[in-house]
Amino acid sequence: MIISFTSNLHPQTLRSLSVISHHPIPSFWGNRETMSSLSRELVFLILQFLDEEKFKETVHRLEQESGFYFNIRYFEEMVTNGEWDEVEKYLSGFTKVDDNRYSMKIFFEIRKQKYLEALDKKDRAKAVEILLKDLKAFSAFNEDLFKEITQLLTLENFRDNEQLSKYGDTKSARGIMLGELKKLIEANPLFRDKLNFPTLKNSRLRTLINQSLNWQHQLCKNPKPNPDIKTLFVDHSCGQSQPNGARAPSPVNSPLLSAVQKPAGFPPLGAHGPFQPAPATLPPSLAGWMANPPTVSHPSASAGPLGFNPPSNSAILKRPRTPPTNNPAVDYQTADSEHVLKRTRAFGISDEVNHLPVNILPVGYSGQSHHGQSSYSSDDLPKTVVMTLNQGSVVKSMDFHPVQQILLLVGTSIGDIMIWELGSREKLAHKNFKVWDLSAFSMPSQAALTSDYTAPISRVTWSPDGTLFGVAYSKYVVQIYSYHGGDDLRNHLEIEAHAGSVNDLAFSYPNKQLCFVTCGEDRLIKVWDAVTGAKQYTFAGHEAPVYSVCPHFKENVQFIFSTATDGKIKAWLYDNMGSRVDYDAPGHSSTAMAYTADGTRLFSCGTNKEGESYLVEWNESEGAVKRTYNGLGKRCVGVVQFDTTKNRFLAVGDEFLVKFWDMDSVNLLTTFDAEGGLPASACIRFNKEGILLAVSTNDNGVKILANPDGIRLLRTMESRSFDSSRIASASVVKTSAMTTFGAANPSAGPSIMDRVATMPSMIAKNGDNRSLVDVKPRVGDESMEKSRIWKLTEITEPSQCRSLRLPDTTTSSTMRVSRLIYTNSGLAILVLAANAVHKLWKWQRNDRNSTGKATANVVPQLWQPTSGILMTNVTSDTNPEEAVPCFALSKNDSYVMSASGGKISLFNMMTFKTMTTFMPPPPAATFLAFHPQDNNIIAIGMEDSSIQIYNVRIDEVKTKLKGHNKRITGLAFSNVLNVLVSSGADSQLCVWSTEGWEKQTSKNLQIPPGRVAAPVVDTRVQFHNDQTQLLAVHETQIAIYEAPKLERLKQWVPPETNGLITHATYSCDSQSIYVSFEDGSVGILTVSTLRLRCRISSTSYLPTNPSSRVYPLVIAAHPTEANQFALGLTDGGVIVLEPLESEGKWGTSPPLENGAGPSGLTGGATSTTDQSQR
Question: By three-state DSSP, how is residue 119 classified?
């Protein structure tokens, strides 16, 4: 019997919900922390209820008084209507004028606009009132600005003021101001976690009440079939004379019985007994999708209890299969954090925008800088057509190489596959459709394939490391090729994958084993070993052909989304227990699903049989559509294709155009036609960085579009032949872990390419009947020939490279550079000198430097704010030059955390002002690192060998880590492995879990034979872009480890003639390592082989002076220019170095040598490879 309560509720009755049965139960409101969390959630439920009941004024009053949810739509409406008093009243529930600079700026902008509107209406009396009552409060902070505002009263038209000359009408001015207010609100720490309404099912409060009544009814001694519920003021009970048959007050409410021990929970109710043990734990994202299991069992589903579903009362309270559409009156987004935010905080760090100077103009602020997700604008989209490549037949699928981003793989409608090198516009490889070994196929397939000379391609895709790629054909076949650079393309696997068409193919990495997933017309999904071709799993359950697959992982759980042509979406784990999800795609469309590159957001795009297309974002925690994007057209045939880039933009080929959306806005951002010639539903594909876009054309071609960064990349590559050594090296080096699929397990056996070499001969392709055994000697001969030709690039003269010494006229210009870093935007260089003073050089955007990024071609400005203040660290009583300096830059370049033996200082990078200082010594901080997901969490390495995990926002040390014996000299986070790696002056590495902060493993660096390390020596650590391989820098060696087990993969020991290593860093693409030495030289290593390819002598960038010994102490790599780095010198100088434009890179990679073990290097260095430290 289901009880449904439908009458109106009064908000004051809601507290009675804490008692939901007659039995004594644990009070969830007793603990203060739990109570505050539940109270906050109850407010959200009340807000939803009031909104559904149309109590609009009450809704906004509660939003303001609780301070839990800032309704940005309501705020926009008031600002647009000029309801200034209501605007300030609403804001007062969340912040006050003097809370922080963001709040001050918000109130100033509002009052300034109110003042300008009064002036525009010639209402001088009102303007004077606003000036004295509202704006005078700001005079204490900026008296000059207040005087300038006051002088506007003397002008007939305030637009005569030069700064206000562009002020338009009232409507446009409010719109511009509103945009700025929204940025300020998003950046203000006091609004953190208050801008998004939790995602709730419709009428969630009513649902809880119904559940409560059902619990009470289940516990009645003599339950009636149709109970009469008349009130919520008392508990329900059948068979009583009181309303609802009310009993005496529940003992749970009785203060006399509050100390009585309470049972652990409810007794079992019918079939809803204790939950079955779960064989695995699902991430919340997938668990949300799996909350509603399908009502129809599929053949592949296990008959036993799945155990994966979260606790559910589905038998008591049925939930809808299709996620409901939320009420548009409230912007329900993803759920907020569950704790109650304090109204006031010590301070917090914004992830979005910098502190902005107060500006009288209601327009965009000069000097404003956005980074991270918000750093991209539509101007960064690739829109310039730079080339067209002729394919000869209709393009069906494309994919850019994951490492060499100017390599494009193309598959066509007749089964041709091509690899293009875009820098030279050269077609490196071209293969026609041909079955390699027809006898391996079933008889029906042999009969069909014998007469077929072509087969349309459904999908081409690279493996995560780019050493393999897969081709799915519309007829039975999947072929996997191994790619060794250039035109070296080898048959690897051929599989009869499905009966009929193979519709999609994707690589995945379950159980740390590279696999590929296919789906087909036979309604099946299959998982195959990418090395042996062995079938691992078959998933059955779709009732129509499977259209696409989307493998992914979250929180260490690997799963696959699949979609079918009937619009059904299912999800599978790598087991034999059937699908966990059964949802309908919007419009029952044939849809494809894709995650953003960072794996945090899920999108789907497809077209149904009626030609209607849908592009949506999913709320994974609920399995519901979060937002539907507008602007797609209707088509007669075909399915619309889409792609994502920069974790910010969506692109679709539609209506002979390429259409773009900002992921956070449902309205179309922009469109362009790529100079015409596009089909109705173009095939599109971005490269990894989003700077190149490939688009198919009507005339069997591909247009390559680029943004300014893409154009520069292609121009750089045009002047030199394609260097395939990087890709070739990947085929013999141990397979690296993939960022997208988790860490590779080095103990799992031979690498993919090692195992490829042992496979039997394969049948000919394109008339080439050489086996793999036949091919190997040829490659060996080429390698030996290259070995004779290749030689180390030596740069000894200034004319052989581009170098720039940054200008410095300050009194500290001769103080040695202790720390050096590029800003994340690449527009500036920040230095910390030995005297505890910071210096910042900024490059300006001009005709010679259109991007404004750091370059050796243009001299930057040593920047200081107009106040003239310096960012100077607090020092201790000891000599600051003897202190261990350290700093860390926030990911949006707004703040720098720094220390020079004294307190840690937090500086504003825009104003150089000290925001706060904390943690006085002893012990002193020796290394700082921001948490990659939260700017307010920092790891602080200490002089006493401990590591403190510190929350800046609440000024609290969360935990202290102990495992080293000497001071901490390096810290590095991995947001893929969820670990923190530390290094110390004890030459030890430690790995800590960022979830529980327990130590996972530790390892001492192995000092090379014949070398003696100093008793206290700095050891640095840095993660590769894949977030699994770890660079360890020691004065005696460069080593690469695989985290989290810290197995050493490679080691490089420099010749003793170079002196000790002073510092080293990865290039921004993690393809090179820049190493500085005590003799002033710089070595450049190729990461894949850890071999020296270029050596730069100090004579190429320093003036000859035998009496002075100057050398680099620190080295930093540009964040986006892979061949640019900067040196911080002992004499206080900072040098930016780049290769000559005619060269474009630092030397060429040495060829791979046959055989294993150490290999001698030109210049006397030795390389120890593949000698794992166990």
Answer: helix
